[in-house]
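ok so dumb question maybe but i'm new to this and my supervisor (M.) told me to 'just get the structure for Phosphogluconate dehydratase' and walked off. so i did the thing. is this what she meant?? sequence i used:
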Amino acid sequence: MTLDPTIEKVTQRIVEKSRDGRTRYLDLIERMGEESPRRSALSCGNLAHAFAASGEDKATIREARATNIAIVTAYNDMLSAHAPYYRYPEKIKLFAREVGATAQVAGGVPAMCDGVTQGQDGMELSLFSRDAIAMGTTIALSHAMYEGALMLGICDKIVPGLLMAALRAGHLPTIFVPAGPMPSGLANKEKQRVRQLYAEGKASKGELLEAESASYHGEGTCTFYGTANSNQMMMEVMGLHVPGAAFPNPGTKIRQELTRAAAHRVAGIGKEGDDYRPLGRCVDEKAVVNAIVGLLATGGSTNHMIHIPAIARAAGISVDWTDFAELSEAVPLVARVYPNGSGDVNDFQAAGGMGFVIRELLAEGLLHKDVMTVWHSDLTLYGRTPELDDGALVWNDAPAKSLDETILRPPATAFSDHGGLALLEGNLGRAVMKTSAVDESRHTIEAPCRIFHTQEAVQAAFKAGELDRDVVVVVRFQGPRANGMPELHKLTPPLGVLQDRGFKVALVTDGRMSGASGKVPAAIHLSPEALGGGPIGKLRDDDLVRVCAQEGTLEALVDAEDWNLRDTPTPPAAEDGLGRELFALMRRHADEAERGGSAMLFEAGL
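this is what came out, is it supposed to look like this??
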């Protein structure tokens, strides 16, 4: 199938604008591959330190004749998605020995749960935890002991942070190792219903906790299609997993075999062999476009509007929201997984999963087939489904037809002919809206605005009945530089209630809403942010604001002369406590959301 012309055009534009940065990046990883210290060149003291505690692997590591695999783990047992990783390092060491290799835990990185910190002070650390994870991963890989790496991470900021750092050591072959989603519990729609009842005072805290506990009930990723599961989709469509590894549940035999296959494979694709697959070559412009296409086709998390630009920059590649928006016009929405539909990610997997999605998108010319993956010379095998045949891992054809067309469809009968993402521009700046979960009748909202600086203030106004009208709720000073850009999920239930009462409601914010963004139209990630003079700071209560996904506009309908004379308000003082003050340097140097909201520099001197 010929590549879709829009995919081709956007890819070529990304190649052109990335040419200098990508050239410098490839030169960097080439030098690292040639000049970086190697185990065999370490001094006796260096080497003795590195294998002192390696037990039966000591002799193999000492001789430096076999691949030594760095394991970077985000394990903790508070985070349900990462709790299964507890035994992974010791299993990976056994799997490595099966092919004559060795493995060491090179380092651990923090893994915070946005589900726990939602609406709490800790959420102000969430976005910058990605940068902290990248720094921790860099430290783990700084020892000249490894010829390959396995990354154990799943959730929101964790996979992007691991990938950003791994790309800076892009001469190493690297495979991402997921652990899978928890089995389905209470239906997400029912959980959302109870949340809204609680927001209205019609359900008790005990009833709410019971519903939440029935939904989040065991080991594994949360089952809605938020950032964590969007991460796994993305690693799959970029070819950075063992094919089909994204969504089998924890504790299953096939999950173990997929992990075994990752350990075996990374041991065989190092520089000393005949199938060298360095990560920096796998993640090129085409792979980044594939990640965006996968996000759009499946209605994935808006957090990746921030993460993908940051990941791309780590590989010397430049993408922006215009690229996303143009691709969205060409990419059909082939999946509806909660919050865009009623089924969860386990239902998506049962309907055909990533094998079905990738095969169908390849067949329509909507994905680049010719990318270097960690497994194969192109993306073809990722369009198949892993299964066990007498205990051995094999890949068979994905279902010829979707096994549940309420969840998964081929492009010819897609839920929508576009990817459910709109770029909004106007005198308030640039923002994005995830439209795939928003009824089309609400894609345009024009109403007086009400200004807030915290989500708690929005909740108080809601409870006081002050928002029982058509309203555009504006929450500003929520960007990366202001307070670390926390997700604003405390807003979802009250705004949903207002909408259900028949009011025209929209949200405009320089903050985030993430992969659980739902049925209320939300212009998010507004750039430039309020801190530093972004025009959102000029808004006043009762200004008329127009949010229109159909036209791609975000406008304050204010007389131009009046608008130009307005000053921006003094920002709220930065909060301290819970260590937030330790991240002041990151806030001060953070990029705008469209560039990734990162405080890290990817080129020396910049």
